[in-house]
Amino acid sequence: MRWSQTLIPTMKETPEGAEIPSHVLMLRAGLIQQVMAGAYTYLPLGWRSLRKAEAIVRDEMDRAGAVELHMPALTPITLWERTGRVDAFGDVLINFKVRRANRQVHLALGPTHEEVVTDLVARFVSSYRQLPITLYQIQTKFRNEERPRFGVLRTSEFLMKDAYSFDTSVESLAASYDKMYEAYCRIFDRCGLEYLAVEAESGPIGGDASHEFMVLADNGEDVVVHCAACGYAANLERAEIGAAKASAAKAAAGSAALKKVDTPKVGSIEQVSKLLGCQPAQMIKTLIYVADGKPLAVLLRGDHDANEGKLRRAVGAAKLELASPEIIEQVTKAPVGFAGPVGLAIGLWADRDVAAVADAVIGANEADKHYTGANLGRDFTVAADHFADLRNAGAGDACPRCGQSLALRHAIEVGHVFKLGTKYSDALGAKFLDDTEQQRTIIMGCYGIGINRILASLIETRHDEQGIVWPMALAPYEVLLAPLNVAQEDVMQVAERLHNELSAAGVDVLLDDRDQRAGVKFKDADLIGFPLRVVIGGRSLKEGKLEIKWRWASEPELIPLEGAAEKLAELVRHARENPRHKS
RNA sequence: CGGAGCGUAGCUCAGCCUGGCUAGAGCACCUGCUUUGGGAGCAGGGGGUCGCAAGUUCGAAUCUUGUCGCUCCGACCA
Q1: Distance A139 CA to B61 C1' (A)
Q2: So what's the ipTM on this one?
């Protein structure tokens, strides 16, 4: 391809509104153009990279035995009503009515495709002989994001690979799941991404039933908990906390007396600690939840955050949510911000770390009042079996596996594998007859990859001051030919010949045939980040040599003009095998 | 959905506070000449409903109100 014949609108300056590196660089390098908040055009270069990522995903899905099909983005709302997900998705589900002859049809744009694919399987699969099977597609998904942001990281329309496995048993599901897990590792390896597979919230099946594939990046929206010592990794919702350090476990032997103090109009932990001159860790906060319709109270150290998943599992509730202000007032007889454990008549749970807080500051269940000097056992009690790990892990907490210190890292979720169980097959009647003529429900798994996020997370983690540093696998073009003077005939002859020979050898090559100064060509080459740049002209050509430079290398090297095409093709082939080469 | 900010040429921005000649600069674009290894120089040229609407005023990019769009922080995220 010739530069002059395609569309590559590079920008010297950072457009207003772009903040994070991947967004800035995708715009400046002419990969994307924003059409509205959360919707982008992929320009020729961006589209090439996206298609390369897609091709890798497709290749590995096929290798893992998954079968590609294509479902419509347009779906009837009734399909979503059958699984109750109209409510579950809420405003995220883009849906609308259209006129069709003399009636109205209510449609939804698919945010994912469990319903459509399960309905398909329910219609055509009826025997264990047809199972297991894993179906996948690569398709545009639609979600009405509350707040699109970070360039292509969070958009309302995005390209997703979604796969669904259908099995006859939990053991068979585990095998399907493992195949997908391994395929994901191969995909992200080939893309040159540094990723972590972390344990994630597991849903109905429990146990080891969900993993998220995370790319560690400072601008990631997710937080993963990582132990550098043993490799334990989990997302914040799921991360367990190891047993408390022995030194902190001194029994709460407080000396102070319980004393009611005035805290007028001051309800938050931060405000109260400031007013009373104590540390948040000296406080115990009391959160009121409603579990399956019944209110309960949870005690946490002031500087800790509740983990609703852990709490739900500890309490054994199906549904758990923070209580409304009305319920809180009814239960505590005080406005929000003044709840405390003393004299509360509802079920009381506590995070393990609460036991170590002596002479604590707590709410007094009375407007504008707190207690100081509160002590567990003397002033209030929590049943021994109501102590549990109920909070989010924090930096410095003990690793549940090895006891070393945990670290919190920001990350971008690029993939998710999940054992679904029978939620959708039950709702949509996907059953099969087993070899003993029993009718049973098909067991499902689902597996997603955000294709756009592969690009964004790669750029987020592989760039420098000059621009993107593409790995060979996803670069829009593998080789850039840069003739320095397009008016010079011998230079252009060499460039044209190399272009044709490399193309014939299966190398993606772009010829910068613009009549531009060398500086402009170099800046654009670095900004876009072509892995291999070949300069034709100047001193080296007179000596029968070409100058080549890897994007991640600091210095160029010279190769003989003689046999250059073969040499370059060989270099490209080698670099394709090593997706993670670094500067 | 709460909080904050920004909308002036394709891009980055000045002008607005304190209303007043024909609305500006740099980059980009077009023409010519020069230049040619890290975003060139000179000369000339094209391009703007100042987001939109209403209001105040003799007069609005500028003041007021409303509205739309975009961005950031937070909440939310099967």
Answers
A1: 45
A2: 0.94
